[in-house]
From TrEMBL:
Pfam families: YkuD. The keyword Transmembrane does not apply. This is L,D-transpeptidase. It comes from the Bacteria. The lineage of its organism: Bacteria, Pseudomonadati, Pseudomonadota, Alphaproteobacteria, Hyphomicrobiales. InterPro entries: LD-transpeptidase (IPR050979), LD_TPept_cat_dom (IPR005490), TAT_signal (IPR006311), TAT_signal_bac_arc (IPR019546), Transpep_catalytic_dom (IPR038063). Pathway: Cell wall biogenesis; peptidoglycan biosynthesis. Belongs to the YkuD family. GO terms for biological process: cell wall organization; peptidoglycan-protein cross-linking; regulation of cell shape. Residues 1-20 are annotated as: Disordered. The keyword Cytoplasm does not apply.
Length: 236
């Protein structure tokens, strides 16, 4: 199944279209917008869990990651709807374990675990006009990647020219700590699943087609995703 881009004027051939534009043009959000299963186990046994324990688990899951090349701060979980916290859920699918399924209508990304279960992550997705669906695969992975704005973006946003030779990896880099680059039929689609430090973006459609997970979630998914992993993006 081929990728279907809803916006006829922003096809995968135009990498500039993958990045939103706005007043804060050089911010992370304007470009792409701009670890364990501990919390996932909550609720699976049918036992009640207190709010305080639930929040404690969330703070642990989304705590700081000082051992990273660029230390990642803790997520302000008060800015994330609890339904988007990482967890293990019941999920029936014919897809093989390891497959990544993106559900843009509900702002979730699933990693199929098998036996009717999946790890579920909250996500931000493409805004209206930049939604797409279809099958792809992870053709490349990168950690703290250098980001280079395409020529089209530089023409439209001259202030991006200072990164023409690449923006080094770091907390402000649009690609974040980890990136899964999506391919189809041997060609890069220009779409990615990337790490976002914007807690408030989770559960919203604000990107130009890419899919963002909180950095802690993206690192968790990245470690379990080899190159060639199948990615299914459901219709919105």
């Amino acid at each position: 199944m081929l990728l279907n881009v809803a916006n006829a004027g922003a096809g995968p051939a135009d990498e500039d279209a993958r990045f939103p534009r706005g007043a804060e043009q050089l911010s992370r959000r304007s470009f792409l917008v701009g670890s364990a299963l501990g919390i996932g186990a909550l609720g699976l046994g049918g036992c009640g869990t207190s709010d305080s324990l639930f929040l404690a688990e969330a703070r642990n899951t989304y705590g700081p990651m000082p051992g990273e090349k660029f230390p990642i701060p803790a997520v302000d979980i008060s800015k994330v709807d609890p339904k988007y916290y990482r967890r293990t859920v019941s999920y029936q699918t014919k897809e093989a374990p390891g497959t990544i399924i993106v559900d843009p209508a509900n702002y979730y990304v699933y990693r199929v675990e098998g036996d009717g279960a999946a790890t579920r992550y909250g996500a931000n997705v493409g805004r209206q006009g930049f939604l797409w669906s279809g099958d792809a695969y992870v053709g490349r992975k990168s950690e703290w990647a250098t980001w280079t704005p395409p020529a089209e973006m530089i023409r439209r946003q001259p202030e991006a020219a200072k990164y023409a030779r690449g923006m080094p990896g770091g907390l402000d880099n649009p690609l974040g700590a980890r990136t899964l680059h999506l391919y189809q039929n041997g060609a890069y689609t220009l779409y990615t699943i990337y790490a976002s430090s914007d807690a408030e973006s989770i559960g919203s459609g604000i990107t130009s087609g890419c899919v963002g997970l909180l950095s802690q979630d993206m690192i968790h998914l990245y470690a379990r995703t080899p190159v060639k992993t199948k990615v299914v993006v459901l219709p919105a």
